[in-house]
Design brief:
single chain, alpha/beta, Guanylate Kinase phosphate binding domain, Rossmann fold, four-stranded mixed β-sheet, two-stranded parallel ribbon, 8 strands
């Protein structure tokens, strides 16, 4: 939801579409929500160094195709990527000037409730996701900013994002 709102507020930005090997959900569109690939095709992209970053998470591969990001940056366009902590670390290594924003839930309990309500994970996968989220919180010092995404307060979360973007753009202009 936050990314959808950002797309409306920042239409000049390039929003990366993540590639994955996980099955497409009923409400998802290939090339809009994700690029869906077979494991074999994804591994070919890895071998050809076509991904800015990639990881195997929850039994599936996820990664950001590099070509469109590189092109956007060469045009001077801001690029927004939605990645996990592993991906953020790899991007920071490849693009040291990248600004990393961690969008955090208000609490572990709130995250668990959101994931349960989403009904996209079975109980085993839900437990893995929640355990992983606790590990990811240890990586907060790597991020430039942390924004807490409170339930039902998406506009406030978006205002925090807008302030960060304005601050970073002003800093880059100096």
């Amino acid at each position: 939801m936050l990314v959808s709102l950002m797309k409306r507020r920042f239409p000049s930005f390039h929003f990366a579409i993540t590639a994955t090997t996980r099955p497409k959900r009923a409400n998802e569109t290939d090339g809009v929500d994700y690029y869906f690939f077979s494991a074999e095709d994804f591994k070919t992209m890895i071998d050809r160094n076509e991904l800015l970053e990639w990881s195997q998470v929850y039994g599936n591969y996820y990664g950001v195709p590099a070509g469109k990001i590189t092109a956007a940056l060469q045009r001077g366009q801001d690029a927004v990527l939605k990645v996990d902590v592993q991906g953020a670390r790899k991007i920071k290594d490849k693009i040291p000037g990248a600004i990393l924003i961690f969008v955090a839930p208000p609490s572990a309990e709130a995250l668990a409730e959101r994931l349960r309500n989403r009904k996209t994970e079975n109980p085993r996968d839900l437990k893995i996701r929640l355990d992983t989220s606790q590990e990811e919180m240890k990586a907060l010092p790597m991020f430039n900013y942390v924004v807490v995404n409170e339930e039902g307060r998406i506009e406030e979360t978006m205002k925090q994002m807008e302030k960060i973007i304005a601050k970073e753009k002003a800093s880059a202009a100096d």
